[in-house]
Amino acid sequence: MKTKMLYIPLDERPCNFDFPAELAKGTDVELVRPGRKLMGLKKRPGHVEALWEWLLAEAKDANGAILIRRPHAS
Prior knowledge:
The chain is α/β, with parallel strands linked by helices and 74 residues long. It has helices at residues 14-17, 19-24, 48-58; strands at 3-8, 29-32, 64-67. Strands 2-1-3 form a 3-stranded parallel sheet. It is globular and about 40 Å long.
């Protein structure tokens, strides 16, 4: 049985969105990501409320989560 790990990447770029999923292939981790439509695009922010809804719905049967956020500018 695979370990279900939720993953919300920093943004939609392949290095953040695709690469971690590729690394998880062939392991005992099922890396579950939100759809790209929920993610931001270039300078456009993501759909924060929809991402929270996705996270809460998927978390019901998940073993863990990886949440990446951009640091706050001071």
